[in-house]
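for the writeup, i need someone to sanity check this before i put it in the appendix. the sequnce is what the collaborator sent (i think, or maybe the updated version? ugh). structure was predicted straight from it, no edits. if anything looks off just tell me and ill rerun, i have time this weekend
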Amino acid sequence: MIRLKLTLLLATTLLLAATSAFAGGIYLTELGTPVSLGTAGSANVVNNKTADAAYTNPAGMTGIKDDVLLSGVQILIPQVRFDSDIAEAGGSDGGNAASAVPIPSLFVVKKLPNDFTAGIAITAPLGGGVDYGSNFVGRYQANRSMLSGVGLSSSVGYKINDQWSIGAGVTAIYTVMDSDVSIKQEEKLPNDEIMPLPDGEININQIDGWSPQGFFSVNWQPTQKVLFGLLYRTKSSVELDGDLSVKGIQNELINEITGNLDDIKVDLDYAQLISVGVQYQATDNLTLVADFDWEDWSELGKERIEIGGLPTGPVIQHADFKWKDTYHVGAGAIYKLDDGGKFVSGGLGYDSSPVDDKDRTFILPIDEQFKFGVAFGKDSPTREDLSYSIGCSYTWFGDGKIDQTAQGVRTKGEFSTNYAVFLGATLRYYF
């Protein structure tokens, strides 16, 4: 019975840890570029002017006139603070559970003969995480949970005629996950009183894996002023494999069992995505953009986990954490300030929540999201002059109300502060 309870606890807490992330789902629309930051991602699917189209819209690469390299860096500055109303475990509210992270990116587009264009992209297409500390009020569900991904993409675009272009590519995603969960421990005394014992802890240490994800896009430009874009990303299945440790167990029998647990495999499915958008050249100086997408995140909550190290063989569990599909809508504008290439851009976006309030956990402290972005840059009309941009995007992750009971302990509250600021800059080089 002790062993059965232990394996169920491990399976439950680790499967919860496998769903850690920020964003509507976990894809990041902010790539540090003037198109992605300045329009809050709403211009990505119709991007046919800058080299990040190698990742966001390979068909749009055919609209780029010269061979170009675009390099950038953005700093993610999150603030995630929980306020508890009920905290049966005691402890602290954790302070700011997130920290600043630099995110570099690189995009290259090369013109080829016969109306073909090739592209390469290095991005951070997904990720997020929380670190509440070991004394957090919700530590029996999560102390710390981090999920990050780096994407290496290659793509090709083909211009069929003046109206139609198509593109396709593949991204190799490298995913890393870390997680810590406290284990509640207590001892029943002869007089039937319950004496609390120091917490144990489950640690997942940088389990990682590679997975491919295909993407395809179509651009249709029926007039000189209007461009429609469509992008599809396939589902990407990854098996994360690495070290597992269980520490601080007070019961000798359980400590002997957990001492044999040494590895873990977690299967994740990143969602397929369909995005559509429109670009409208309202005036010679003003371009308007809008987009809509659907993301199949209901599959991410259905995970498989395998815990190894027991003499009887691995423990395999499945679970459904009631994630649901999300949708995004956005709109933005790009305004050319002068003939020297200076421009400003701005945009708004909305993402629906991937989880209902009653199912939200401390590993996913978000619900619906609102985004706002602005950027300023110079797109030099000549190859010799420097092209650059700076931008900022703000995302509010919602109040994230939580009422959860984990390991028999209830914690209730909401995130009074729950947002992230993206600051980015890029340089463009023609070759």
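The chain is about 5% helix and 55% strand. The radius of gyration is 24 Å.
thx in advance!!
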